[in-house]
Amino acid sequence: MSYQRFTRAHRRIERPRLPRTRVGRRRLVRGVVAACVLALTPATWVYASTGDRVGTVADAPAAGVAVVFGAGLWDGKPSPYLADRLDAAVALYRAGKVKAVLVTGDNSRAAYDEPDAMRGYLVEHGVPDRNVVSDFAGFDTWDSCVRAKQVFGVDRAVLVSQGFHIRRAVALCEAAGVRSYGVGVDAPHDVTWYYGGTREVFAANKALLDAVFHPDPTFLGPKEPGVRRALAGEG
User: Fold this and answer.
1) What is the mean pLDDT of residues 67-85?
2) CB-hemisphere CA count at 13 Å for 176?
3) pLDDT at 45 over 50
4) Alpha-carbon span 55 to 201, nearest angstrom
């Protein structure tokens, strides 16, 4: 390559120059600020819309139903994060604040069954099997909230998840028609925690769209009486 051709190519990939005038720089700053505000608006909505409806097991009101969101399996067993959520649900049941526990998670393939693993954990820790209801199509938070309302007939619930996720869960279940209180489970500030917190900033964008447009869940299906029967004490 000749020197002239190299120079022309080099010029084509030069970095954009900052505006030279004061007015230009001011417009650039305003544009950056506006972009940041726009990007953070969904996350701000999540926090503003949930207010003081997030707390601990001790703070949670009696609601009849607890909804526990899936959080992954390790060798077919609940991951540590999921086990912490299930422990909180056990505490809610023992405290008499809920009679039914709706476990919602992914069972999109035969080899991966979050709800059954969650049910097994709860039963092992003292929650009667008849009081645990499984939602096998909780593929994301919005799907779980919509199905809780439309399939299982849940009008009011205590939601259980980690602190970085619980406000989005409350906001979405409220949008789906479920009056909700969130129990934010403590978690160690490890790699998973930082990943989850960062992910929530971006997940808030989808959450706001879901709350506004109310898309159909991946799978809805017929109504199921499991929650009603658990609340009624039916076997």
Assistant:
1) 95
2) 30
3) yes
4) 20
Please report the DSSP string for 51-99 in residue order.
TT-EE-TTTPPP-EEEEEE---EETTEE-HHHHHHHHHHHHHHHTTSEE
User: If 0-12 CB within 10 Å is exposed, 13-18 middle and 19+ buried, where does residue 193 land?
Assistant: middle
Closest CA to 142 of 79, 88, 220: 220
Region of 195 please: left (phi>0), alpha (psi -120 to 50) or beta: alpha
* Distance in angstroms (rounded) separating the CA atoms of residues 65 and 191: 31
Tell me if the pTM is above 0.85: no
Residue in the block written with tokens 């726009």: 38
Residues 6+ away with beta carbon under 8 Å from 164: 187, 193, 196, 197, 200
d(CA 126, CA 85) in angstroms, rounded, equals 15
| Type of residue at 3 | Y
